[in-house]
Amino acid sequence: MEAFTTHTGRAVPLRRGNVDTDQIIPAHWLKKVTRDGFEDGLFEAWRKDPQFVLNQPQYAGASVLVAGRDFGTGSSREHAVWALQNYGFKAVLSSRFADIFRGNSLKNGLLTVVLPQEDIERLWALAETDPTAEVTVDLVGREVRAGGVSTAFELDEDARRRLLEGLDDISLTLLHEADIAAFEARRPAHKPSTAVA
Amino acid sequence: MGRTLAEKVWDDHVVRRAEGEPDLLFIDLHLLHEVTSPQAFDGLRMGGRPVRRLDLTIATEDHNTPTLDIDKPIADPVSRAQLETLRKNCAEFGVRLHPLGDVEQGVVHVVGPQLGLTQPGTTVVCGDSHTSTHGAFGALAFGIGTSQVEHVLATQTLPLAPFRTMAITVDGELPADVSAKDLILAVIARIGTGGGQGYVIEYRGEAIEKLSMEARMTVCNMSIEAGARAGMIAPDQTTFDYLRGRPHAPRDADWDEAVAYWRTLRTDDDAVYDHEVRLDASELAPFVTWGTNPGQGAPLSASVPDPASFEDAGERLAAEKALEYMGLEAGRPLREVTVDTVFVGSCTNGRIEDLRSAASVVEGRRIADSVRMLVVPGSVRVALQAVEEGLDKVFTAAGAEWRHAGCSMCLGMNPDQLAPGERSASTSNRNFEGRQGKGGRTHLVSPQVAAATAVLGRLASPADLSDVPTPVEA
């Protein structure tokens, strides 16, 4: 995974709550067997509307998505994270994320930041009045800076460390091979097995 | 202090606990399907890693599979390639696979329980959010992303952030015409699509204890629609009776040992939940959604709400956008909403009891001429059972289409889709924009409501059916 330390870019105000993963990447895109090439599927249905925020020229090239509450609800598809990244987003800001989406994002180096709704509203207003305004998402200092205002955010220390160092979760877990083997050795015999008798 | 059911199962699976790090949990059962696994197998290949526990891993084909002409090559080349990728990966790594055409094929969350693989006190994961279904057995079961699928394949463990506990207690008895689907839709409308965020929900109370295993699966299945990490129900005699004798259920001495353990999986009397919600089952009624998320629902007897009635600005805006997408106006009685398509199936309502419920409503009746009704069993085993009971004939005699098993129109990855503007009453789990096909409009309902709706051509419950099997113009 690519490390995330700090990112500065322009913001896209997505004034919608409950943005579900079917909107982020519709199911027909999930037939692909790669992790790339999903950028054209991002918000595919909404992008058919010329007024949709991503179609407005002033937001071209923006890399920080500022979204309404409950972003990423629904399906566990990691393709939603890949689509956002393939399109060019480095961070998503919302007052609440769905759990699976958040876990997926942090495993791929897409930083999802929880901010109070009033800060989201302030960033929406900023990005709408001045689309050239830059937003800095600083994982080292754990704060979002924009328009002369900085807001601290929380992220659990373990997830933060993994992101900052771009660590590979599987390699880290396999350091504990002895613990896994010991657990396996004491599992009860009645536990299910998929082996065909 | 006592512990909740979820905490007990969690504690029994901790491989490693260290200050400042998430617990590393052992995974008892890993279910795979074609959509969320290809990139995970690629990762294994790139890292030169094997599947650690083939004996705890099983795959089936469900999301892309056609429900017609399954003996012919799959028409969509992209779907075909994805299924072929799963077959190739399972062959290469040695994973047990039930492909299209196999007697054990079906929707992954129907297959696990019917094989007896889903057991109380286990941890179950799958790259699919509706893995919460398996919580009906008192398993801690949750959906994961593809990176985590790779992690489980390689290590049979997952590092997991702690959760909070929520009890949803349903007192009393469900009225006769109210099903588990109505119950869970009412719960989601009450707590919202984000209300369960960070929580493992435990459903309890008299009404839950009286539910069959299949009805409990319907309830737990939609926990994710409230944003919950998982949903669980304490195992009891109903659970044990369902499991006994299934192909992968414990046998002989193992069975006795297992049941003794399973009986300990109850929330202690002095345990404290982080949040509690109480509902009175007797107040529940047939429930339908009117909007574009599963929390936007109301009793069938209600009308489409006025967005202005929502106090929260975000909810008001969401309701406005939902009504616009759904082509509905505030104040219209839900019973007057006409539908084009009825879908009975999915991991929510594609089991034999669901098919029996729907069949009992359409038996001896004809569905409305204006309606297309698809009945898609959740698995081949469910289909075989239904045929043995003659349910397929009941459906086809009523004018419905009897299809092969799979996810089908729940998410339209196969050819079973809504056309733009087309409206469905669907027993599935998500009414998101475009979920069942671009521009399609979905009303989530129970199997009974789906069947009555098919007969009348408008949203209806069985109580609305007269003995005259002619459609009523709305």
Automatic annotation (TrEMBL), chain A:
Pfam families: Aconitase_C (PF00694). GO terms for molecular function: 3-isopropylmalate dehydratase activity. CDD domains: IPMI_Swivel (cd01577). It catalyses: (2R,3S)-3-isopropylmalate = (2S)-2-isopropylmalate. Its EC number is 4.2.1.33. Residues 1-118 form the Aconitase A/isopropylmalate dehydratase small subunit swivel domain. GO terms for cellular component: 3-isopropylmalate dehydratase complex. HAMAP family: LeuD_type1. Heterodimer of LeuC and LeuD. Belongs to the LeuD family. LeuD type 1 subfamily. Catalyzes the isomerization between 2-isopropylmalate and 3-isopropylmalate, via the formation of 2-isopropylmaleate. This is 3-isopropylmalate dehydratase small subunit.
UniProtKB/TrEMBL annotation, chain B:
Its EC number is 4.2.1.33. The lineage of its organism: Bacteria, Bacillati, Actinomycetota, Actinomycetes, Kitasatosporales. One of its GO terms (molecular function) is 3-isopropylmalate dehydratase activity. PANTHER family: 3-ISOPROPYLMALATE DEHYDRATASE, HOMOACONITASE, MITOCHONDRIAL-RELATED. The keyword Iron applies. This is 3-isopropylmalate dehydratase large subunit. [4Fe-4S] cluster binds at C347, C407, C410. It comes from Streptantibioticus silvisoli. The keyword Acetylation does not apply. HAMAP family: LeuC_type1. Keywords: 4Fe-4S, Amino-acid biosynthesis, Branched-chain amino acid biosynthesis, Iron, Iron-sulfur, Leucine biosynthesis, Lyase, Metal-binding. Residues 418-444 are annotated as: Disordered. It catalyses: (2R,3S)-3-isopropylmalate = (2S)-2-isopropylmalate. Binds 1 [4Fe-4S] cluster per subunit. Heterodimer of LeuC and LeuD. Belongs to the aconitase/IPM isomerase family. LeuC type 1 subfamily. Residues 7-457 form the Aconitase/3-isopropylmalate dehydratase large subunit alpha/beta/alpha domain. It comes from the Bacteria. Pathway: Amino-acid biosynthesis; L-leucine biosynthesis; L-leucine from 3-methyl-2-oxobutanoate: step 2/4. Catalyzes the isomerization between 2-isopropylmalate and 3-isopropylmalate, via the formation of 2-isopropylmaleate. InterPro entries: 3-IsopropMal_deHydase_lsu (IPR004430), Acnase/IPM_dHydase_lsu_aba_1/3 (IPR015931), Acoase/IPM_deHydtase_lsu_aba (IPR001030), Aconitase_4Fe-4S_BS (IPR018136), Aconitase_4Fe-4S_dom (IPR036008), IPM_dehydratase_rel_enz (IPR050067), IPMI_cat (IPR033941). Pfam families: Aconitase. Its cofactor is [4Fe-4S] cluster.
